Amino acid sequence: MKLASQKDFLSGLMFTIVGISFALGAREYEVGAAARMGPGYFPMMLGILLTVLGVSITIQSFRKGGADGDPVGAIAWRPLCFVLGANLLFGALLVGVPALGIPAFGLIVALYVLVVVAGFAQPGSKIKHSLVLATVLAVGSYGAFVYMLNLQFPVWPAFLTA
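^ thats the sequence. predicted structure below, dont judge the formating
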């Protein structure tokens, strides 16, 4: 059987692998039921949903595509590195890395760094656009997580609140 779309096939395969990984990882936690969800409920449902989506996309890859098989292009290293790096920086800055001497900078600083660094993934990006987006995201995140949900995590740098 001829593969009609390599991109769809590989993306479907990726979704399937990630979905199965989430579902298997969720087995380590109590899943519970829809009425009384445990910590493993969301990752389990997400894993199942991603697996179903991945299988569906993989099957569809045999039905559509270009005459040349819709080949996969080169890896976009710039966006890959900047987006992954931004997420790693976000995690490190949010709660700090004591082993490396990095203090907790809190949600607001971590969000600004996340958006600005990820913005460099696009060539010709403007820092002004990233700062506006970061401000909207910071205000929305503060309102949702701190004000409405009353979650307890560092919002501002530890050295400012001590």
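Residues 6-60 form one domain.
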